[in-house]
Amino acid sequence: MDQKLLDILCCPVTKQPVFPLTETDLALVNDAIATGKINHADESPVETPLTEGLITRNRQHIYRIDDGIPVMLEDESIPVDQIQGL
């Protein structure tokens, strides 16, 4: 992801800056998604594993990146409190 884009992106909910998920964090997220118990902020289930993602500095919200494009929609964010160990 382009650093200039990262520098201007922020969470639409908390206004916190966002950072790329580490490989370790991405693995934890995808393991949690595989259980079928993870929901988006709008409570719809997260059905597809992430290939990339962004997390807020305060580690409250995750946003997926699809084909290099960050999906910064509040309803599609993943609240981190559902993911054990993150």
Keywords:
five-stranded antiparallel sheet, alpha+beta, 86 residues, 21% helix
Walk me through the structure:
- This protein has 86 residues and is of the alpha+beta class.
- It has one domain (3-82).
- Helices cover 21% and strands 20% of the residues.
- It has two helices and five strands.
- A hairpin with a 2-residue loop joins β3 and β4.
- The model has no long low-confidence stretch (mean pLDDT 96).
Brief characterization of the structure:
With 86 residues, the chain is of the alpha+beta class.
Instruction: List the uncertain runs.
Output: none
Strand element count: 5
Q: How would you sum up the global shape?
A: globular
Helix share, percent: 10-25%
Q: What composes the largest sheet?
A: 5 strands, antiparallel
Radius of gyration: 12 Å
The helix/strand class is alpha+beta
How much of the sequence lies in strands comes to 15-25%
SSE string, helices as H and strands as E = HEHEEEE
Task: Itemize the secondary structure elements and their pairings.
Blueprint: H1 3-8, E1 18-20, H2 23-34, E2 53-56, E3 61-66, E4 69-70, E5 78-79
Antiparallel strand pairs: 1-2, 2-3, 3-4, 3-5
